[in-house]
Design a protein that fits this description.
Elements lengths: L2 E7 L7 E5 L9 E6 L8 E12 L4 E7 L36
Parallel strand pairs: 1-5
Antiparallel strand pairs: 1-2, 3-4, 4-5
Length: 103
Amino acid sequence: MKSEDTPFEGGPMDGRTLPVLLGITGHPPRTYRIPVPDAAGGPPTVLVYRRVSRGQGRLTQRWKYVHDPEGEPGGRPRWPWQKPSRPSGPGATPGGDRDDAEG
């Protein structure tokens, strides 16, 4: 497997560089999770880092990880064949199709 030395910014890993395994496309994962064991023996704390661009290299895109303090999931992927979510509420059009009166 191929890996790339990737810098981390923010949080406890600030300023460190770790070798991160690259996927099939040659990019590191979008989210990097680091479990930190609890000193009292409780459940581990998970540090979440998000991948962002750090500029263009000679031939490839370069990446770095930035600390995400909330650690929320980034959401679901948006596939091109999926319809966008429909608005709801009092201002939404009935059926969500067209907004004109002629139909």
